[in-house]
TrEMBL record:
Compartment(s): Cell membrane; Membrane
Signal peptide boundaries: none
Amino-acid biosynthesis as UniProt keyword: no
Domain ABC transmembrane type-2: 27-260
Name of the protein in its database record: Transport permease protein
Cellular component annotations (GO), alphabetically ordered: ATP-binding cassette (ABC) transporter complex
Similarity-based family: Belongs to the ABC-2 integral membrane protein family.
InterPro entries registered for this protein in UniProt: ABC2_TM, ABC2_TM_bact-type, ABC_2_transport, Nod_factor_ABC_transporter
Keyword Lyase: no
Pfam families associated with the record: ABC2_membrane (PF01061)
């Protein structure tokens, strides 16, 4: 119990380090919080007029996808933060200190999840302002929010691993480039069956599409496209995909962290 207590205390200390950095640089934090809102306004108003969603408004279809997209964008900030600490030698200093080995990874995870929860809250308020509504029950709405944060938790471990592998913030540009195709090849903005067959199949099985489809069902928002196995079992996939990603990338991240400077 003493070891666990110190591990929690050390992890919280690392979390506070990130929170204090955001307090000293509020512009960076605000940009990260409001960028998804800007994306929502751009796509909703610039493209929404050309989108005909059966049984609903385009914003009702778009918002669950935008929520999932915001969770994906968190990969970039996690990767840059981890790579910056590694490049400046801060990670090595942490490893040389008498602190729990898990503190750095846990502290980074908690800080990023708090940031993502705040960003999701801002985006939900933005959606409400443009007319989006959740028509499901309170329990279903909370479950949908939980699925979104679960997806962010899975993407967080990918960001941690990539940051440790890249080791330099300049290399994070490659991650930013790859995030965009992954974001667009999904059901965020349009139904997969409107795409070419091979591209639609990729979009349909995108982890973001699973979470977006499950959230549309839980929020009571309209779906778009012909029913498929993936859409009919979206809730199952929205749980399975994050579990699989965490099972792969969490051990890889811990192992990579342990091997630094050897």
């Amino acid at each position: 119990m003493t070891t666990l207590r110190w591990a929690v205390a050390d992890g919280w200390t690392v979390t506070l380090r990130s929170l204090n950095r955001w307090a000293r640089e509020p512009g960076v934090l605000l940009l990260g919080l409001f960028f998804p809102v800007l994306m929502m306004v751009m796509f909703g108003y610039l493209l929404g007029g050309a989108m005909a969603v059966p049984g609903g408004d385009y914003f009702d279809f778009l918002m669950p996808g935008m929520f999932a997209l915001a969770m994906l964008f968190g990969i970039e900030s996690t990767t840059i933060a981890v790579a910056t600490d590694a490049a400046r030698g801060i990670t090595d200093r942490f490893r040389s200190m008498p602190m729990a080995p898990s503190a750095v990874v846990v502290g980074r995870s908690v800080a990023d999840m708090l940031n993502s929860a705040a960003g999701l809250g801002v985006l939900i308020v933005g959606g409400l302002l443009v007319g989006w509504r959740a028509h499901g029950s309170a329990v279903e709405t909370l479950l949908a929010i939980g699925l979104l944060l679960l997806l962010r938790f899975a993407f967080l471990w990918i960001g941690v691993y990539l940051g440790l592998v890249i080791g330099r913030p300049e290399g994070a540009v490659a991650v930013q480039i790859l995030v965009w195709p992954f974001a667009f090849v999904s059901s965020t903005f349009a139904a997969p069956d409107t795409m070419p067959g091979w591209l639609g199949a990729i979009a349909e099985w995108n982890p973001m599409s699973a979470t977006a489809a499950a959230c549309r069902d839980l929020f009571g928002n309209p779906a778009w496209g012909e029913p498929t196995w993936a859409t009919e079992h979206a809730l199952l996939l929205a749980l399975a995909w994050p579990a699989a990603l965490v099972a792969v990338f969490a051990p890889l991240s811990v192992r990579r962290f342990q091997r630094l400077s050897r």
